[in-house]
Specification:
Shape: globular
CATH class: Alpha Beta
CATH superfamily: NAD(P)-binding Rossmann-like Domain
Radius of gyration: 18 Å
Oligomer: single chain
CATH architecture: 3-Layer(aba) Sandwich
Helix content: 25-40%
Bound molecules: zinc ion
CATH topology: Rossmann fold
Structural class: alpha/beta
Number of strands: 8
Number of helices: 9
Length: 259
C-alpha cells in the first residue's frame, strides 16, 4: 500500500486530497476503469478519471472521429477528424497524466469480446449510444458483480444511475421498452457534459468509497429547464436482478432504500 503511495505525485493531486484523502488517492491509483464508448460521455468521463489519477483506464471504441462529433466530444480537435477515437483519446489523456496507464482498445464491445476486454476492470462506465451494446455491459455486470455506471442522453434530456448487482435493479429493468433512446444524434455538448460529469463523479466516489453515488436512484436530467429529478428504482419482474436482490437481502445486504 505505501509503495503505491510513494509513487503518487502529491502536487498533482493536492487540490483533491483534502476531499478524498491519501487512502482515496491510493484507491484510485490501484483501480482499473473501463470507459466503453468515447463519444460525448466517454470523452469527458475519461478526462476526469485520468485527471483524478485512476491507475488504469481502458478506452474502448471502434469508431473514427467525424467533424460532427466535435460539438461534444471534447478530447478531439479538428485536426483529428478521420483518426481512431481510442488512439487519439489515449494520446490526449497520456499528455494530461503521464503517471497512469492508458490502454486504447479499438473495437466495439459485443457479447463475444466483453469478457476478454473488461476482465481487468473494477468499474464499467457506459459511454455508449446504443441500447443493445449497453445491455451487453449490463449482462456482464450482472454476471461478474462489477458496478456499472450508466448514462444516456437524448437532446436536452439525459439520465444517469449506478447499477450494483445484487443491490439495485439491472439496466434491462430500466431500459426504455422500445429501446427508443436515440443516443447522441441530437445533442448539445454542454447537456451531454452534464450527464458525463455525474458519471465521472460517481465512478470516483465508488472507487474511493466517499459520498453517496446514485446507487438504485435514476437521475433524470432536464437540461432545457435546468432541473435534475430522481426516481428510486424498484426491482420489477426481471428474473435476473430480482433473484440477486433477494439473495443479497438473505445475506443482510439490503438495497439502499427498501422497495
Ligand atoms: Zn433486472
Amino acid at each position: 500500500m505505501s509503495s503505491v503511495f510513494d509513487k503518487i505525485d502529491l502536487e498533482r493531486y493536492s487540490r483533491q486530497l483534502p476531499m478524498i484523502g491519501a487512502r482515496g488517492q491510493i484507491d484510485l491509483a490501484s483501480s482499473t476503469v473501463a470507459v466503453v464508448g468515447l463519444g460525448g460521455l466517454g470523452s469527458l468521463v475519461s478526462y476526469y478519471l485520468a485527471a483524478a489519477g485512476v491507475g488504469k483506464i481502458l478506452l474502448i471504441d471502434g469508431e473514427r472521429i467525424e467533424l460532427n462529433n466535435l460539438n461534444r466530444q471534447i478530447l478531439y480537435s479538428t485536426r483529428d477528424v478521420g483518426e481512431w477515437k481510442a488512439e487519439v483519446a489515449a494520446q490526449r489523456l497520456r499528455e494530461l497524466n503521464p503517471d497512469i496507464d492508458i490502454e486504447p482498445v479499438r473495437t466495439e464491445i459485443s457479447a463475444d469480446n466483453v469478457n476478454r476486454i473488461l476482465g481487468e476492470a473494477d468499474v464499467i462506465v457506459d459511454g455508449l449510444d446504443d441500447w443493445r451494446a449497453r445491455l451487453v455491459l449490463d449482462e456482464y455486470s450482472q454476471k461478474t458483480g462489477k458496478p456499472l455506471v450508466h448514462g444516456a442522453v437524448d437532446g436536452f434530456y439525459g439520465q444517469m444511475t449506478v447499477i450494483v448487482p445484487g443491490k439495485t435493479p439491472c439496466l434491462a429493468c430500466i431500459a426504455p421498452k422500445d429501446l427508443g433512446y436515440r443516443g447522441c444524434r441530437a445533442a448539445l455538448g454542454a447537456a451531454v457534459g452534464l450527464v458525463a460529469v455525474l458519471e465521472a463523479l460517481d465512478t470516483i466516489k465508488l472507487l474511493t468509497r466517499i459520498g453517496n453515488p446514485a446507487i438504485g436512484r435514476l437521475l433524470i436530467i432536464d437540461a432545457f429547464n435546468s432541473r435534475i429529478e430522481e426516481i428510486t428504482l424498484k426491482p420489477v419482474e426481471c428474473g435476473r436482478c430480482m433473484e440477486r436482490i433477494v439473495e443479497a437481502q438473505d445475506l443482510g445486504l439490503k438495497p439502499e432504500k427498501p422497495a
